[in-house]
Amino acid sequence: MSRLRSYSWELLLTVLIFAGFGWSSTLSPYFLDAVNLFGAAAFFVIFVFMVFGQFPIIVLGEIDLSLPSTLAVGAALFALLGLAGVPLAGAIVVVVVATAALGALNGALVSRFGLPSLAVTLGTAGAYRGLAYLLSGSAGLTGLPQSYTALGSMWVGIIPVWVVIAIFVGVLFAGLMGFTRFGRQCYAIGSNKAATRMAAVPVVRTGVLAYTLGGVMAGLAGLVWISQYQSARGDNAEGAILFVITAVVLGGVSIKGGSGRALGVGLALILLAVLQTGMQLANVPGTSQTLVLGSLLVVALALPKLGQLTRRLRRVPEATARRSMGGSGESGFQTDPEQGRRS
Amino acid sequence: MTTLSRRTLLGAGVAALATGLAACTTTAPTSGATGTADKAASDVKIFMAPKFTGLAYFEVARKGGEEAGKELGINFQYIGSDQPNATAQIATLTNAVPQKPNALVVSAIDGDAVAPALRTARGQGIKVVTYDADAAVDARDLFINQLSYELAATTMLDAALLNSPSGGLVAFISASPTAPNHTAHVTFMKQHIDTNPKYQGFTYVDTVQFAGDDATKSQEAARNLMQAHPDLKVIISSSAVSAPAAQQAIVDAGKAGQLWGTGVALPSSVKDFIKNGSSRAFCMWDPAELGYLATIAAHQLVTGKIQGKEGEQIDAGKAGTFEILKDGEVQYNKPLIFTPENIDQYDF
What we know:
Radius of gyration of chain A: 21 Å
Shape of chain A: globular
Number of helices of chain A: 16
Oligomer: heterodimer
Helix content of chain A: over 70%
Shape of chain B: globular
Order of helices and strands of chain A: HHHHHHHHEEHHHHHHHH
Number of strands of chain A: 2
Strand order of the largest sheet of chain A: 1-2
Low-confidence stretches of chain B: 33-38
Mean pLDDT of chain B: 90
Number of helices of chain B: 10
Low-confidence stretches of chain A: 323-343
Largest sheet of chain A: 2 strands, antiparallel
Radius of gyration of chain B: 24 Å
Structural class of chain A: mainly alpha
Strand content of chain B: 15-25%
């Protein structure tokens, strides 16, 4: 029973996804069509890469605002290498190394030197964006070789290849955060950094690693961009950060760190995709779309607090009865590492 | 969980992915859903997608499109996101295609990135007309260009001359280095100042400022320019957001009368400046008529009245007749210069 309760957020998201499906299909007669739905899903793949790249960083209790800029650097690098005739495999190696370095720089500044991640990554977001403009030039880059763009026009049955790969990425991160030492260390650091350091966990190394992984994911999202949009420009994925953070937080990952599961993040992505696609198929005006997505984020932040509040109210008589025994009856909802890790 | 089983799991996952990918095809799946088969006039559906919604310029163009829609008796819809970025517009266009409109009228925020979505639309028989900002040539049938880049450049220089007849130092504020129209405008302006005797009184600051169609950034850019170049005479911007913002910064700095702002602007946004004499001229074209022409052209492509070939004529009624040039470009080319004498005539 308590195990089921620990999944209540994921259950709620699932219910919301079904409600979203119902709502969207009443909004637009074009919504319930498998081919269109999978086609629309392909659009969200670059976000999937960035969202899962952001996930361990937020679990650490930090944030990375520079991922969309890193994507732009990755896309520009892929385009340049493609135009220079470098085979795709070689380009992937170069981009992974380069974007890992960009991520590691963030990680070093945040974890090694203890600078606030919000400010650091806001700065590097600007710097990396500038780098992307320098690389891609004022006119942007087009005319890429077919090998670079092929994945963007391939399907497994009716499912775009990138959607299949995106699902794989989700599973990979579920494994990484749920079953590895790295994952456990991320949750521990996010719950209580000082105590984790005392326990001889390599706090700095884990932090740098999480940011490096985030950079690589954004760099690979650059390949998705290149193959889907067959071009690269300095402003690629500008403004995407809002969606990325909304998805992670809506997925039940505490913005303060220490809790949240890949399953929730994946479900949040599906929910956001369903709602956005439904509203766009119904030509809902842009401002209303932003309003709906923004409200969803606020509700996602408020709901756990509300749940806590009602539980506390219900426990008041019980707590009074136990006060003589010294138990408070209130456990930290967001800061319990065990809670987050349970998968 | 032990390391061994973890590895086994990962291996199994990779194997599953590989098997899945081995079954790849390169033929796009087609949707089973069919649109309305009968095509009465009222069933013709045309969607207009601006770069993003909420900007006054595009809302005026929308009115022109709606007017054309009403005259033709077609189903006209205005679609789009209020987020000014390429991903948002790609999402809009991707989701427009399944609704099977007969034509899309688009102002492309990133002409290359939206091209695949537009090609998909064309592949399904949807006619694509770009207006205001073009997409890759093979991704659309027609591009309705408001002013040829060179005409836009000379019109802005003419407006600059009206402000500062004796010439002087000019600086440019552009939208972004990735906006091809803005970049071309500046290039042509520099070229004309260098070579055209009419504008020989001008010299220019070579470095272009970029303000991304953002009013605050434009004001900041204007302030920086004033600081760096005390002898500056004119700030020209081809962005309808930056031009009035730069003029506002000039007024705020108390430099009105010594330094002039001009460029492309909606008349409603600069009426006060022109009325109180802090600027003598701004320029633009009629965005409503541009939207009207683009919608009429899209409709004629749908009905088969035109094919979109070079040399064909588009009869757009009250807007006039326009010839299709090379690469499907149609030049609207009706510049307007707003001065104290005529600004009251314009209500957009």
